[in-house]
């Protein structure tokens, strides 16, 4: 259970959840509801998405309680009756959840998570469940593109400072690691999630010393972990020569890498590599950062730049080319009857659903079939039970989820591995689901 | 002091802050450092920015401590020595801070906040200070565009679910309110910040009932606050007629508004207005939502759509057209000497600075002058002391900051009020600053 990703409380929700609950309570509408969380459309610049955030979503459901203070805050709005508030104070989440395992590749309209619970419980959790799953899925999907762009390279999340707040910073580290990053610069991600952490030095360190050479020497002397020297503060090539000077006099310690953070990284990395190699310093690695994203990393890798690792910051942590997904949580059944929303441009498929994945002979994904639960279909069913009557079932570790994500990326058909828009992957809607939809539309007019 | 916006702990930082601190400790580099936080370049689609997040930044500095658990977590990385960790355990923030008051309009290169403190303290806080101030400034700047696009309209933050995590959701509500929004749907923003909260109903509420009419009647009966009915679940025009039916039989209660969430809002709002007006229901207001941003809101307002208020969600809470600013925190002086970074494309102006704002005859902003502190210039100095030797000075309330933001927006020159890119506002670099820069470059080569 997360501790530093501190609990923002059950009132971190939309007001309408509580006003609807008051209405459900007033009329004892406590029959079972089924909600599914999914993404309505893939963004233009994503060929697939990677499910993430389930672990924190289940933490949230397990811990869901109105504290005395929450009840008092709700009372003070003047919007709720006393009996209702007394009932809220006893509310727990007692439902079932099925979900895609974290790290699973998925597509539009496919349920990522399903909640089956008494109506009020299932409704209340909408806003925060979307808030949790949307963000980590967004970042894991962006990170997977970086991983595909730089096979075999060290990739480190550098985005903490420009992530949207504390929670985003910590969970961007988790989601990117899950998707295949090597680690993060965010310190708390290590105690919280066991994620490897990486550090270098800032320009201010160089600037606080009388000279760059003195700064390097001082840093090398004080460090107990891998030594990474930042060499672009004044003049990158001169700084590389200073690194050689330092490396020559070193006894018992080695310089792990240098970091380039500005300028033409393709040109500078070659010059620096040449300087080091000429001095026999072949083991000093070159690490690059500074406004990088999957496109610039791919260009550097494709151009053969001798860069061993990349720090990816802002572009990753805010998913800069696509900072939100059309991620929703919709009522699919109530009191045993399938339901759906028909609003213009926002219609959804009704009922409890399952996704089956079919594989080609080479083991790659071939197509998916979206159908109603129980419809016998060939292929691998993707949704699995993860919570039963409010209790979590055995959960994969973050390492398991990371391995699963890697296996999923390995099974992507080649066109989907491209950073450019590929033809859409086929998600076939089964006849059983089309038939159910027609029946529901007949019933609710 | 914020309580629900829970403290993520001092280890929510970049690892290099701690490894640099170890080096500073080893060599007793504890002289005074000056860092300034600023935005290097305005994004293409922003004519100005609105400072926000100072309150939470100062909360962070006041509360800054390494707990026993933080020290233990740091020790376990194996990167730090015992004496250093013992010193960290006693560390507090003892510095001075000057800043732009929240709600102040500012431009590229102008300091938003300055920290003057012993080097280790001033360095350590970099990552989290940027994380806090960057996000709220990002959202306040986006929200200000919405406010300019819809003068006199009710504007409500609806973005909690797609904000990047819990912290972003809560602070997007604060930053948008500060910039002129009427309120938010995020419940916890009320107890936390006193922000007005607004609720409607979800499509699932309609769907959970046997008919839309029954759902409306039930909701009206149960609500104690303003009643807002969502009318686009099945057929918006038919639903408006059902609202009329309900309104006719109401005794002692009134329907405050209806919400349109899909379809052609310009057309539907007119049809719905006509239906209500024909029945004498002129007081029922029309509220619109569904994928709105400042551009679609401006188009609806300019086209004369009879819409009284707008819920703006995802586009606001993730600042979708610009999800990050080039916001940095740079060393400007150490041990009494001005310093600067000269990296290609990332050079900064050295030294302690002040911004002076000059006004035209009509009271609008005319131009700014960026100079070294103490340089006598005409105009209004914008940076003010907000913290002295670790203690906060009297702070404006959120209501004060909101009033200040409104006054600032009223003083924007017309070209900057456009949603389109205007010619850049003049930020003139004073001779005193140019001269200092030349001296610094001579000294640090």
Map the helices and strands:
2 copies of one chain form a homodimer.
Chain A: H1 15-26, E1 32-39, E2 49-50, H2 54-63, H3 68-76, H4 82-88, E3 96-99, E4 105-106, E5 113-118, H5 119-124, H6 126-149, E6 154-157, H7 166-178, E7 183-184, H8 189-193, H9 203-207, H10 212-222, E8 227-230, H11 236-249, E9 255-260, H12 265-278, E10 285-288, H13 294-302, E11 309-312, H14 314-317, E12 327-334, E13 337-338, E14 353-359, E15 365-372, E16 380-381, E17 384-388, E18 391-392, H15 398-410, H16 414-417, E19 427-429, H17 431-443
Q: What does this protein look like?
A:
2 copies of one chain form a homodimer. The first copy, chain A, is of the alpha/beta class. The first copy, chain A, has a domain at 150-317: Alpha-Beta Barrel (TIM Barrel), CATH 3.20.20.70. Chain A is 39% helix and 19% strand. Chain A is built from 17 helices and 19 strands. The first copy, chain A, has helices at residues 15-26, 54-63, 68-76, 82-88, 119-124, 126-149, 166-178, 189-193, 203-207, 212-222, 236-249, 265-278, 294-302, 314-317, 398-410, 414-417, 431-443, and strands spanning 32-39, 49-50, 96-99, 105-106, 113-118, 154-157, 183-184, 227-230, 255-260, 285-288, 309-312, 327-334, 337-338, 353-359, 365-372, 380-381, 384-388, 391-392, 427-429. In chain A, the strands form 4 sheets. The first copy, chain A, has a 7-stranded antiparallel beta sheet. In chain A, a hairpin with a 2-residue loop joins strand 12 (327-334) and strand 13. In chain A, helix 2 (54-63) runs antiparallel to helix 6 (126-149). The longest helix of chain A is centred in the N-terminal third of the chain and has 24 residues, at 126-149. Chains A and B meet through helix 1, helix 3, helix 6, helix 7 and helix 9 of A and helix 1, helix 3, helix 6, helix 7 and helix 9 of B.
